[in-house]
Design brief:
Blueprint: H1 2-31, E1 41-42, H2 45-53, E2 84-85, H3 100-134
Antiparallel strand pairs: 1-2
Helix pairs in contact: 1-2, 1-3
Length: 136
Amino acid sequence: MTDRIDALLQVKRTALNARAYRQELLASNIANADTPNYKARDIEFKSVLDGALAGRTQAGLGLAATSPRHFQGNGAGEFGGAVKYRTEFQPNVDGNTVNMDVERAAFAENSIQLEAMLTFIRNDLTTLQTAMQSTP
């Protein structure tokens, strides 16, 4: 039973995780708008979701341990390998590539899509709950 519920929510859970990760990247870009030489980063949501659903990992490169005393790095998370630098529209003197208009628009759009995904998941869970309550 739980495997069917998990299969039902797999795509939406993966999409929600990708949206949340993108929200973190966009927030980081906005927070570093005044940091010299900071390069704005983002992920392409569609390719990340397609890759995750196809079973391709986006975890990026692992860390090489040349000594047994080295800590094992856990990478940048599930979608860390898909992070790319945003192209510059207008170069800044300090080398920062954050364009606040682009970042705010992307943040707002991603927030709306994140809320929509949560609503879809909530509706699925409500439907499942109703089905379980109505079965004798």
